[in-house]
């Protein structure tokens, strides 16, 4: 994996996390690191600009609304493939197994192990190969998150595209193409959250 991919993954991990003062302080570092590679900064610039120019509490409020309170932009990779079904417990266990196999203690900070910022940070700083395999395995999830962000005109969509660009193959044209590419969707049996159903894609502004 190239150094450019490593920088992309770490910057994406930070930019997709809850915005706090530490994240704001990291903006110059991210600009400098991404600026070393032609075109890399462009995908991150709108989010970095917002972190530097907008009120932090306002940014936090928007983040909670868009990423925490609903499922439209859920950052947990297995949600998009397994919903909140019984099978998902096995999937989360598989993520933990990958982390344990790295010979490095991975602090989940109270998050589920499939939380995208955590997977990205693991990939960038702990085990590049194992992390990239996880990202490739859950490429459909990445694409679906991206399309949801695009539909709601959120700047983070370009960051998801940057992640996808590090993986083999071109991005599908739309959500239906993602499902055809993957060959599956979340099972209909649910013990909590409604599983993702491509026939029930939310309309913009819904």
Instruction: Describe the main β-sheet briefly.
Output: none
Helix content: 55-70%
The CATH architecture classification is Orthogonal Bundle
* Individual helix count: 11
- Give the class-level CATH name: Mainly Alpha
**Measured on Cα atoms, how large is the radius of gyration?**
16 Å
Using DSSP, what is the number of strands? 0
Strand composition percent: under 5%
Low-confidence stretches: 185-206
What value does the average pLDDT take? 85
- Overall form: globular
Distance between the termini: 39 Å
List the helices and strands in order: HHHHHHHHHHH
* CATH topology descriptor: TorD-like
Keyword list:
206 residues; mainly alpha; TorD-like; 58% helix; disordered C terminus
Describe this structure in words.
By secondary structure, this protein is mainly α. It has one domain (3-198): TorD-like (Orthogonal Bundle), CATH 1.10.3480. It contains eleven helices and no strands. It has helices spanning 3-15, 21-34, 45-53, 56-68, 79-82, 86-100, 116-125, 128-137, 139-151, 156-165, 175-182. Helix 1 (3-15) packs antiparallel against helix 10 (156-165). The longest helix has 15 residues, at 86-100. It is globular. The model is unreliable at 185-206 (pLDDT under 50). This is Nitrate reductase molybdenum cofactor assembly chaperone. InterPro entries: DMSO/NO3_reduct_chaperone (IPR020945), NO3_reductase_chaperone_NarJ (IPR003765), TorD-like_sf (IPR036411). It holds the Pfam family Nitrate_red_del. Keywords: Nitrate assimilation.
């Amino acid at each position: 994996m190239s150094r450019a991919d490593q920088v992309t993954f770490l910057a994406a991990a930070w930019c997709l996390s809850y915005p706090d003062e530490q994240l704001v302080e990291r903006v110059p570092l991210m600009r400098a690191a991404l600026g070393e590679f032609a075109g890399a900064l462009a995908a991150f610039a709108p989010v970095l600009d917002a972190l530097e120019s907008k009120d932090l509490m306002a940014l936090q409020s928007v983040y909670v609304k868009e990423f925490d309170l609903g499922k439209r932009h859920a950052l947990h990779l297995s949600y998009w493939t397994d919903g909140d079904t019984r099978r998902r417990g096995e999937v989360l266990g598989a993520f933990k197994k990958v982390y344990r196999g790295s010979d490095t203690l991975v602090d989940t900070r109270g998050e589920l192990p499939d939380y995208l910022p955590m997977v990205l940070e693991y990939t960038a700083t702990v085990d590049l190969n194992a992390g990239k395999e996880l990202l490739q395995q859950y490429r459909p999830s990445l694409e679906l998150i991206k399309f949801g962000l695009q539909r709601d005109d959120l700047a983070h969509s370009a960051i998801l595209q940057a992640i996808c660009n590090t993986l083999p193959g071109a991005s599908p044209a739309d959500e239906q193409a993602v499902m055809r590419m993957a060959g599956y969707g979340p099972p209909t049996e649910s013990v909590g959250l409604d599983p993702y159903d491509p026939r029930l894609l939310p309309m913009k502004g819904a």
